[in-house]
Amino acid sequence: MPHRRTTTNATASALFTPHGINRAQRRTLRKQAARAEARARAAADTATGQDSAEAVFPDAVYPPAGRPGPASARGSRLTLPAHRMTTAVASGAYPFLAEGGLGADGIYIGRDLHAEGSFVFDPFALYGKVDGFTNPNLLLAGVIGQGKSALAKSLALRSVAFGYRVYIPCDPKGEWTPVAQALGGTAIALGPGLPGRLNPLDAAPRPHSVAEAEWESEVRKRRLLLLGSLARTVLGRDLLPMEHTVLDVALGIAVAQAAARARPPLLGDVAHALADGPGLDLAGGLLAGRLGDAARDLAHAMRRLVHGDLAGMFDAPSTSMFDPYAPVLSIDLSRLGAGADDTALVLAMTCASAWMEAALTDPYGGRRWVIYDEAWRLMRHPALLMRMQAQWKLSRGLGIANLMVIHRLSDLLTAGDAGSQGRALAEGLLADCSTRVIYRQETDQLPAAASLLGLTSVESGALSHLTRGRGLWKVAGRSFVVQHHLHPHEQSLFDTDARFR
Question: What domain of life (predicted)?
Answer without folding.
Answer: Bacteria
